[in-house]
Amino acid sequence: MSSRKRHHLLIIDPQNDFCDSAGALFVPGASQDMERLAQFIHQKKTTLDRLFVTLDSHHRYDIAHPLYWVQEDGSKPQPLTTVTVQDIEKKRIIPRHSADVDRSYHYLSELESRGISHIIWPEHCIIGEWGHQIYPIIAQEIREFQERMYQAPTILFKGMNPYTEHFSALSAIVPDSSDRNTQLQTSLVRELLDCDQLYIAGEALSHCVASTINDLIANIDRGERGKIVLLLNATSPVSGFESMMDVMLEEWSQSGIHIKDIHEALEEE
């Protein structure tokens, strides 16, 4: 008789600032995503072997927040402002501390060489504040998981380095050579995939979920990609980024990743 398959679940950033309508970076649809995901966790009961949860974790002073930057008139740039290398060169927008200019210039140069814009976000997921906390319905399921399985979840903090953004669960967008936590977490890749099925859900599909999936695709072979199931109705894109998702979902599917709604995943039990 074959042994039962091992199932892991990775929840990306199920936090108030993304999932509650009062959150600083509320993702439209996220609260409903979390309700469906909570039902999924509850229905999986003892067939869910490990639970991984990432938490976006920032300081107010962060390269992705207004406080880090200053404009020519001495004011902070508004959220959703794009900052470019040319802005620094022409001193239209520069880091508040002169000691941070060179590293910030290098950071933006690296992003632009990859065709990525640096967007300043509203302050969000500030460590210790309400927005950083896990959305209540998911927090309850995490508590119950521990009671059922006599096992702690694996909580993964990301984003505490103020000099680089950290969308992916596995690496920062521009790794900091002096900070191992920003570099590719190869041991975590192996830990996540030490199973027959890795379910992925959370927020936001267009950013942190997408970056995590792309990191996985880049660092595992096609056979292992077949273990991954994106729970499509337990994740949503940031408003304004919806159009890019159809292409990305098709690319992921072509790479070997499975994309399913929660009811489909549960029916396969």
From TrEMBL:
Superkingdom of the organism of origin: Bacteria
One GO molecular-function entry: hydrolase activity
Keyword Hydrolase: yes
InterPro entries reported for this sequence: Isochorismatase-like_sf, Isochorismatase_Nicotinamidase
Keyword flag Ligase: no
Gene3D superfamilies: Isochorismatase-like
Keywords in alphabetical order: Hydrolase
Family listed: Belongs to the isochorismatase family.
Protein's recorded name: Cysteine hydrolase
Organism name: Entomospira entomophila
